[in-house]
Amino acid sequence: MERTVFPCPALRMFLTYCPDGSLVEVGQLKPLMDPFALRVEGRFHAGEELQDPESFLKAELRFPSGEPLPRCWLDPGYASAAPRSGGTR
To answer: What is the pTM of this model?
Structure first.
């Protein structure tokens, strides 16, 4: 008998879709954290029935607290633009 393995619920993240404030469940975090990926697949979290997956622009997603996604998840050049620590001598 073959077992069906479901993704670990702890590896899911809920984000807010900025255009309308809806909650979106993202099940694959790797594309979410990949600065070269512009979109991520998720599902609106509404009602009792499981919604169909949709593609969301990462730029239109925020944390439910209202904070934006980290720049390192959105901008492939974030490391080269970051201020360097340390003083001049």
So the answer is: 0.76
